[in-house]
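Teaching note: in complex prediction, the entire set of molecules is handled at once rather than each chain in isolation. The prompt given to students was simply: 'Predict the structure of this complex.' The entities are:
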Amino acid sequence: MVAFIALLKNDAKLVLRDWKAIVLLLAMPFLFICLFTYALAPLLNKSSFMDPFNIALVDNEGTVQTRMLANQLDRLEIFKEVMRVDESEARQLLHENKIAAIIIIPAEFSNSVYWGRNKPVTVIGNKSMPLQSFVVKNVAQSAANLVSAGQSAINTIYHYNQKAGMSGEELQKEFSESTMKVLMETLSRNEMFSKVDDADNISVTPAEYFTASLMVIFLMFAGMPTMKMLVTEKSLHLTDRLRVSPIAAWQVIASKFMISIILSVVQFGLIIALTSTVFKNYWGGPVMRVLFLLCGIIFAVSSWSIFVSSIAKTSASADIIGNLGILIMAVVGGSIYPLSSMPEFVRDLSNFTINRWASEGFMIIFSGNDGLSVVNNFYALIVIGLAFLIISTAILKLRRY
Amino acid sequence: MGMQDLIEVKGLSKKYGKLTVLDRLSFTIQKAEIFGLLGPNGAGKSTFISILATLCRPTDGDILINGLSVTKQSDKIKKNLGFVPQEIALYPMLSGIDNLNFWAGIYGLSGGIKKERIQQALSVVRLEDRAKDRVDNYSGGMKRRLNIAVALLHHPDILIMDEPTVGVDIQSRKYIMDAIKALKKEGKTIIFTSHYIDEMENLCDRIALIDKGSIKSIGTVGELQRIYGREKIEEILLDFLRD
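The expected output is the structure of the full assembly:
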């Protein structure tokens, strides 16, 4: 025990010697969370990464129906302003890049829809704003699909009434009523959709999102100093001397493991204190759930650092392997860019990263949804950690640590 | 194994693939003797030292230290073994005394005994005045001396020294030689390798001449001179190199 305490004290002393690096290691996560939250939160608050833009509407009909249609466009959040102008003025605006697209409603549009001879709505896109033009085209296409669906419904009603024996004025009256009803609903189509929140969905604030994503990266960095110590000891020939001493190889690794855990816990505690004070992050879930997840993450992260030190031969190669590994896991695991926006193969690959399970676990905690559990996240982290430890042990044995 | 034999090497072989580094070595080392291993580069000296220090396992054979096997009972042997590696194995960013404190702790020493042992070790290698300085501010010779001091802290009966004087200035070399002689007087058994033949002649009770993984001869300086008909050990070594 005396020997192990000596080892632990020495490792702590060596880590604390570089106190500037430790202060940076502990302070950087909070600074990064602040930076990301203030800089990128507006992007997360929106449903897309596209700023609202202007379009022009040329209403060549000018009836109540087309004005209703224009009002619907006004209500779409993606349009900053729907400018009511004539066609030449609209083309001028397009030429000056002040609008992303022009929607032209032809004269007699409502009447043509009424009689099933749909006059086409024209969309002219701005070449320099292809994404926005594409969105406008899709809005128009979606409206056209709704009109077609309405017309099919009217036809069905008409033929049903006819087969049922209706004729003459009665049939015409039913037709007019159904046409009016469907037309009005089509034109005020927002009422056809209702917004429902998924009870199982994870809902977090931008600060909580970035805390969850970045905390994992920085917890991984917290394992780096001890990881480098193992490599440095190797390069300073201290490992051979330790192997000749009565101390066991597992004790040397366990000591580094413990220092790594202490650093991670301190870092985690600081992040909890600062983010809950400054950003009011929700840490109010069951304490056991937080501890459960933290244990899983720290185990996985510490195993990762031991893994890096087992494959690196020098301190410089440990830095490169460690930093690259953290970066790759951060990208693949969704810490840099949301996984939901990634291709499927990346999402599949993310299952093998610490970041994916740790970030998701934190977001479950932040969501305050007691119906969601972090048990799967904990097990996934333990499995990843065990895999790193088994591989590290095999490599260290092969190299006769 | 004779009454005074402390170490018994029995048919020791080490192979790396098809390369035989040590070929069925068998000899004994007596208690309280300074036993030198002399041979050209690549003769197998460091491999033998590594096996003796429990750092690597033999392909065949064994070494018994006080009747304990280095392959099967290394944990018991380590407590009684002091190892001075060829490379400086110290924390350069720590002071001399911090290094000694750490290694004393590793060998289970604490409290007053630890302090006493550290002072003794510093005194043997004559580094008392510079104990509080950082090791990376030491000269090469001072680092070598501290490297030896670390191995003395737990008062081992056996000291394994792999070229402890390599690249050292005259003054430090003298201090190291004096330290080794003092340790012999205390009854320590020292296994010693060096490229400096005069050191071997002056210090060693017996010398094993090793070449291409085999022991060519073992004996006192006088015995080796008689066997090979040469006045100097250096000439014997040169004969090996010519062959």
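Point out the following to students. The mean pLDDT of chain A is 83. The longest helix of chain A spans residues 130-163.
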